[in-house]
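Case 385 in the screening queue. Each case pairs one protein sequence with one candidate compound; here the compound is iron/sulfur cluster. For every case the pipeline is the same: read the inputs, emit a complex structure as tokens, and attach any notable structural observations.

Predict complex for case 385.
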Amino acid sequence: MNNWQVGGFGLYVHWPFCEAKCPYCDFNSHVVGRIDQTRWKNAYLKEIKRVARELPDRVLGSIFFGGGTPSLMAPDTVSSIIEAARGAWTCANDLEITLEANPGSVEAGRFAAYRAGGVTRVSLGVQALNDEDLRRLGRLHNAQEARDALDIAQKTFERVSFDLIYARQDQNADAWSQELSDALSIGVDHLSLYQLTIEQGTAFGDRYNRGKLRGLPDEDLSADLYDITQELCTSAGLLRYEVSNHARPGSESRHNLVYWRYGDYAGIGPGAHGRLTLASSRFATETPLAPGAWLHRAENGNGEDPRRLLTPQDQAGEYLLMGLRTVEGIDMDRYQSMSGRQLDSESVQHLVDLDLVRKHDQRLFARPKGFSVLNQVVTELLPSY
Ligand SMILES: C[S@@+](CC[C@H](N)C(=O)[O-])C[C@H]1O[C@@H](n2cnc3c(N)ncnc32)[C@H](O)[C@@H]1O
Ligand code: SF4
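Case 385 output:
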């Protein structure tokens, strides 16, 4: 079996526009006055044809509209892309099609049309369930709008996920327990719970550097918040399957599993990444970040930057980084077949002794303690080749 087949094949579509830029966010998102939806639609359709010419025989398991704010896409743009992808590849019977949405009322008003166009799952960027924190996070919606959007989403789609950001300014353990219990009582099948990361180059990053972003949790409180997250989600039956992702068993995001299982995915749109196996060589693909530059290139026949060939070591390193994020961990035989070398047994044993990883048959998993220090775990394993 080809290596990518273990992880499957998905299509990622990046929509780079948002209504406003959130102060913490370093995703490739831009605020513009007017978007020519027809022009953008045609560029995506052209890109799907180009990628499908190179990869004609794949079975498509998932499509993910990410952003930016894909719920600013006209429903016709979304349905045309889905139709083109369905026409380009053989699709899995249970093809998962996710769209990231913001909780504004305009967006929620489009849910029915997205569903009619083929979307099977939405992931809502709720971020917080109280107005004060939403304001501090620079969000345009309030808590009631988030609840209303979730309600409409649950009535429209069988599968609904939402994102919360925790470890926010002045958030203590009690407040997070309350908020997360509240979130869990909404009854979705999937939650993405991210600790606030201060990214350089964002408004929060600048404020932090000037000492003006006060009230962030220290390491101990962050660890407590993380533990509370695991406890509450586990008791509610939403099991962690990746560092920040929790799902009812069977409701995991199939698309994200393609990344973490190190499968192949085509990435189209500004700043989209991809991993493609062609004639037994594996490539990393990238596209221009600037929306105008990408549009121009896609219209001229190829939206990609030159591809980078991944060496066996690159691939093995990426597999380790991705795979250890999940509770299923990595297959050490697959690692060896990619890199041509085994993982260094002394490093593995050292991490086992520290209770950061566990070995079972040919698999290596992060232990609960290991998830909190995953970068250290990977660094310890990486220099070994
Ligand atoms: C690309 S955003 C897409 C969702 C949508 N645009 C929205 O914001 O509602 C994906 C998610 O990443 C999370 N995120 C973005 N920046 C973050 C940061 N600095 N720290 C923690 N989580 C972050 C947010 O929860 C966000 O919903
Ligand atoms: S968090 Fe979402 S809405 Fe905010 S700027 Fe980033 S992508 Fe846009």
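Case 385 observations:
- The radius of gyration is 21 Å.
- The chain has two domains: 3-258, 311-385.
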